[in-house]
Automatic annotation (TrEMBL):
Keywords: Membrane, Methyltransferase, Transferase, Transmembrane, Transmembrane helix
Lineage: Bacteria, Bacillati, Bacillota, Bacilli, Bacillales
GO cellular component, as recorded: membrane
Transmembrane segments: 42-63, 70-96, 122-152
Membrane topology of this protein: Multi-pass membrane protein
Listed GO MF terms: protein C-terminal S-isoprenylcysteine carboxyl O-methyltransferase activity
Compartments, record wording: Membrane
Example GO BP: methylation
Name of the protein described by the UniProt record: Isoprenylcysteine carboxyl methyltransferase
Amino acid sequence: MEIFLFLIILVIFQRIFELIIAKRNERRMKQLGAYEVGASHYPFMILLHVGFFASLMVEVIIFERTLSPFFVYLFVFFMLVQLLRIWCILSLGMYWNTKIIVLPGTKPVKTGPYAFFKHPNYFVVCCEIIIMPIMFQAYVTAFIFSILNFIMLSIRIPLEEKALSEAANGEYVLDKKIQHPS
């Protein structure tokens, strides 16, 4: 149980720190003329992630789940996923955010893990939603929240790609005309 509590507290503090970074990046980007896309689904995304942690804690603590026999291997994979998360954040710099913040006239980042595939940060989230519960044999949480996350990403990714593409090409994005810098 101590391992679970340590890990869950660590990850929750990590998320809080990431929200602070995201808020700072959002302010910086908006000062440069950026705007948010998909704000209507963002509260559901927050609810999904808060619900994930609540479900994980309930399933592990109330139903007294124990460590997986493969915990060590899963934990190593989890730590590698965390390194990928940090690489994503560092590669995007001020563009990294938990919201879809679009800066007109900019092209999507193609460095770091983004040079290898389009959405490494979403891959990280998918892995975490599966790995964290399985480390503690919380299979119900892993199953339910993997499905909910898939639904969320099926909405979010196309919206994000469309907004970034339109912003880079100087097209209209959700009724806003993008002004290209001179």
